[in-house]
Fold this sequence. Notes:
This protein is of the alpha+beta class and about 475 residues long.
Amino acid sequence: MSNYEAVIGLEAHVQLKTKSKLFCGCSTEFGQEPNSQVCPVCLGFPGSLPVLNKVALDYSIKVGIALNCRVQEFTKFDRKHYYYPDLPKNFQISQYDLPISKNGFLDIEMGKRIERISIRRAHLEEDAGKLIHKDGLSLVDYNRTGQPLLEIVTEPDINSPEEAYEYLTTLKSIIQYLGVSDCDMEKGSLRCDANISIRRKATKELGTKAELKNMNSFKAVRDALQFEIDRQMELLNNSEAVIQETRFWDEKSGKTFSMRSKEEAKDYRYFPEPDLPPFVITQDKIEEIRETIPELPKAKAKRFMQEYGLLEYDVKILVSSKDNADYAERCFKAWPDKNKKSVANWLIGPVAALANSRNKNIADLNIPVENLLELIDFVETQQISNLTAKSILEEIIDTGKSASQIIREKNLIQISDESSLGSDIEEVVKENPESVEAFKTGKEKAIMFLVGQVMKKTKGKANPKVVQEIIKRRLNNE
C-alpha cells in the first residue's frame, strides 16, 4: 500500500427493536415459524396500504441526534424498484433524496489519534425477507419482510480495515446505549455492506469501487476489506482495470467473488411513495426525543475516569456495553474503599474471562453485586488467594451461593498463621536442597518453586505471600 491508499465507505443496516413492523401490525419477534408473521401489507397484496410505525420514526430521530446529524424538518418515503425473491412487492419502501437525518459525524479512537468519520445520511426503510438455501432448493421466509431498518451511510472517510472495524464497534455501542436495537449480528439485527476503492496517494480522484456483501461479523468486514485492497492493488499494478461490481465475501476461502454489476441510483427508478404522505418533524419533537438520550459511551468513560479514578484502558472495556457499564457502576458505588481499581481489575479480568467463555456479557452472568464484592473483599484481606477466588467465582455463577457460604462449606480460608505453616515449610526445605542452594547463591526465582511446593502440600490454602516471607527469613538466617 506504499503508493496507494484505501477509500472506504460503510453502510450499516440496523434493525430497530419495535414490537411491530414498519408499515403494518405484524410481530417482529425473532425465531418464529417461517411465514407465520405476515399480512397483506408486508406481502404487498394489491389494495393494501402502509401505515408508518411511530416508534420506528422516533428511534430513527434518536439515532440521528446521537450521531450529530441534522434531523430533517421535512422527510418522505420513496419506492426503490428491484426484483428479488425475498422482496414480494418487487419494490422496497425506502428514502432517497429526503432522508430523516444527514450530515453527521462519529469520532473514533485509533490509538492516540481521533479520526472523524462523516455520516452522509441515516434513512428508514423496510427490510427484505430471508432466502434459505437447503438441499438444492431455495426457500423464502417473509417474516423479516417489512421490519424497520435504519441504514446509516458514511462518507468515504475511512482509509483502512482497522478504522472500519473501530467505526462499527463504536457505532454498535452507541446504538445499544440508545436501546433502539440489540445489534445482534447472528439474528441479522446489524448488517454491514462496504464500498471500497483504492487510489494513488496525494490524488483526489476516487478509484473504481466494489461493493462487498455477506459479512456477518466485524472481523469479516475487516478481513474482506483487506482482501479487496490487496486484490485491487494487484490489478492496478498489473495495468488491469478494476470493475465496478458487487462482490460476495466467502469466509471459508477468505476471498471475495463477483456477484453482479453494481447498480446506481438511476437503476432503481426511485419515485415518491404514493401511499404515504410526507412527514414534518418539528423542533419540539426533536428536543423531546433529545431529552430521552442517555449518557453515551464517550461521556460515561470520561466520567468513570474522573469519578472513580480509573485508567482509560480499563474504562474503555467497561463502557463498551451499556449493561456492563451499569453493572460496573453498581459495584463501584457499593464498594466502600475509595480505590475502585481492585473492582475494575476483577471486572475486566476474571469476570470478563468467564463471560467470554460462556458467550455472555458480564451483566448476563447474574452475579449479585454484593456476592462479587464479598469475594473481592476476601481476596483483598488475604483470607483467600486469587486462584481460589477464581474457582469460587465460577461456583457463585453456577450455584447462586454467596462467596462466604462456599468458603465455609469447603473450608477454603487461607492459612496465614506462621505456626500452622511451619511444619510444611520445613518439609519442603528438606526435600528440595538444590532449590535451597540455588536461592542462597543469588537465584531469587528459586524461592517461587519452594513456595509452589508448600502450596501443593496445603492444597492451595497457604497464603503465598506469607509463605515466601517465612522461607526467605528461614534461609537467610542459616
